[in-house]
Description:
With 158 residues, the chain is of the alpha+beta class. It has helices at residues 37-40, 55-68, 70-73, 111-129; strands at residues 23-34, 49-50, 53-54, 84-92, 95-106, 137-147, 153-154. It has a single domain, classed as Molybdopterin cofactor biosynthesis C (MoaC) domain (Alpha-Beta Plaits, 2-Layer Sandwich). The radius of gyration is 17 Å and the shape is elongated. Keywords: Lyase, Molybdenum cofactor biosynthesis. GO terms for molecular function: cyclic pyranopterin monophosphate synthase activity.
Amino acid sequence: MSLSHVNEQNQAAMVDVSAKEITVRIATAEARVTVNDAVAAQFDGRDFATKKGPVFQTAILAGTMGAKQTSSLIPLCHPLPLDSCKFEVTFEGREACIRCTCKTTGKTGVEMEALTGASIAALAFYDMCKALDPAMVIHGVKLLEKTGGKSDYKADSK
Length: 158
């Protein structure tokens, strides 16, 4: 198996998707943020606010903006029109779990958009809460699932 973004001369190259079929493509990614007790105590099942404003809503807006700008951030990504970009933010103990699902109708997948959306949302979450916990750790950024291309993917549920 060869890398998709390397040409015959072993140089970085954008993948030619001109011959691919247009299909609905969906990808979900997640990022996790481990927080201290002070941040975790703010969460009561709903969004919470810091002096900067509502934490989840700000993270979701930043994540959406990031997903829409993926091709500007990742050099070999195709610019994609997103049909949908949705987020779910939950708390599991002292971890914020941020999931981003992106959808497009096109010739290439939206994995990078979902990964970028989840990552940028986690960074915005950090920015909103850093006064309460400057030692937060962003981790576990991963693709959970993708459908619609020549091969589907679903991460193990570990």
